[in-house]
Structure formats: C-alpha cells, structure tokens
Specification:
TIM Barrel, 7-stranded parallel beta sheet, two-stranded antiparallel sheet, 11 helices, 36% helix
Amino acid sequence: MPVADVRLGSGDHALNVTSIGYGAMSIAGAYGSMAEDAAIDLLHHVEERGVNFIDTANIYGDGVSEQVVGKFLDGRRHDFVLATKVGIEKGGGVGQRRPRGDAAYIREQIDLSLKRLGTDYVDLYYLHRVDPEVPIEESAGALSELVEAGKVRAIGLSEATGEEIRRAHAVHPVTAVQSEWSIFSRDVETYVLPTCAELGVGFVPYSPVGRGLITDHFTPDALGEGDGRHNFPWFQAENLPLNQELAEQVLAEAAALDVPAAGLALAWLFAKAHGLGVEISPIPGTRYAEHWDELQAGLGAGGAGVELDAGVIARLDALAEQVRGERSFKVDWVSGGREGLIPRS
C-alpha cells in the first residue's frame, strides 16, 4: 500500500507528511473502550503501512490518547510527524466542554502534553477550537511564542472560519487547518478551503468517513453505550435511517469500483482537494487494523487517491444536501456555524 508524501503549509513553516495520517481519538474511548496494548498494536500496523503522521489532542480521553501515543513513540520520536491540540477545556463530558484559547492556558497545556507524549517538541500544535472570548490574534501569538521556544515546529487551527484563518496567519504563518470534511459534510468548501488555497495552508480533514457512517461495516447496533456518536445529530433516531440510505448509495458506487466504501470516501476527498488547489492529509481513526486497510485502499497505486471519473464524483457530490441533521451538536463550535452555513435549530 504505497503512501505519497504531501507538503502542508509553505516556506520555513511547512511540514512534509504522508498523504494519510492516523487520528488517535479512537484509541481513547470515543467509540468504545480499547486496551492500551491493542492501541499500540494498531499504531504499529499503521506504521507498517507506511504512515508517519499521527494526530492526537490533550482532550482525547483527558490525556489518555497522548499517553498511549507517547508510549508508542518511545525511542523513535523522530521517525514521525506528531500533531496535538489545545483549546477545549474539560467540562461535564461531550457537549459540556468549552473553548479556551487564552495565552496562559496555551502555555500551561503544551508542557502537560509534552510530558504525556514523552517528547520536548511537537511538529504541529493546533488551536482545537476558537475561543469566542479571546481574539484569535492572542491565541495565534501564544502559539507563535511556543515556536520561538522550540516546543512547537508549526501551528495550526481547527474549525476556524476563513476570516479567522486570515487573522491568525497575519500573526504567524498557519501550516494546517483541521476541520471536518467528507462526502456528507461540505461547508468548508465555501470559505475555508479557498482561504487555505490562497494562503498556501494545508488542510487536514477529520471524520473523512462520517464517523464511520460511510463504511462497509456501519450498523445502528454499532452505537454502543458510551459511544460519542449518540451526541451527533446524524446518528439520532429521527435522522439515522435516511442517512444510512445515503450511505448505501456510497457503498453501491464503491462496489462498482471494487473498492471499500471508506476507500472511496478518501479518494473523493483527494479528487475534490486537487480541484480546489489544496494539499490534504486526511486523518481517519479506527480501532481495527482491517478497517485501516480499507481506508488506505482509497489511496490507489500512486498513494494519493484512486482516480475517479466525473460521473462518480457528481453522484457523490449530490448526497450532502440530502443529509439529515447537522454535523455538530454545537454549530457555533464549527466553522460553518459561525460563517452562517449551518443553520441553528
């Protein structure tokens, strides 16, 4: 399974990463429990498939994800491009947390993350959510100070609007923006992705298979107790049946191409990114090695996306407008909500 290299960002703040990265939220219990040994085995599997880009966050499992990733990286930190995040303060669980982006908090949290990760620097440090009470310039300035201190190589933003990206980029070059983007979630195409293309900022799509919905394996029974997807409108009882029907259309397209549905979802992303002039490295997450291989099948022979014809792309493009429910339980937390692209219920 070849994996191409891509370049996120430009100039002195660019990072070379594999065209797919591993999103390590899954190993911290977001979709169900996972033993530490099993998580480390899965990370080794991803490594064996040629992937060197690992994405985590301080909030995933309240630090558990960072700790597991740190154990995996022990003794060979420099073989990987490591990203983590700051900017969501622990509250009463999903839906009860709050964005926090003040400089003091960012300075405090980087040291805690570095300790858990067992390293003295991270390659890419994201502001996980934009704090509505803190100017983005202050948050970007604090991240810039960490670059100067040698604790961070490059800075990123997650779920920032096009305007917020521009304002932060004026303080310090932004290397990557991470936001949700998939066949079912398209709002970033209006403002965010054109801004990234204009500024030379890389893009890191999270949830590229719709939190597992756009795969060959999803069933409602997969949503066990404690599964965080219960909090997302797509998966609620009034919305899920229709959304599953739409996912079945993706599965039919994938079957006709003899690729897994998850692989087709990634191939679609690469095709769309090429058209928009943006370099991407999606970061799907899974707890299963075989599911990872299905994802990576979407990279194709060249390692940067199975080639899709215009008809397939057009049919997949038509699905997003039919999806029922919004992509987030808090629309103000995501870029499309603040840009007026996601209606408030």
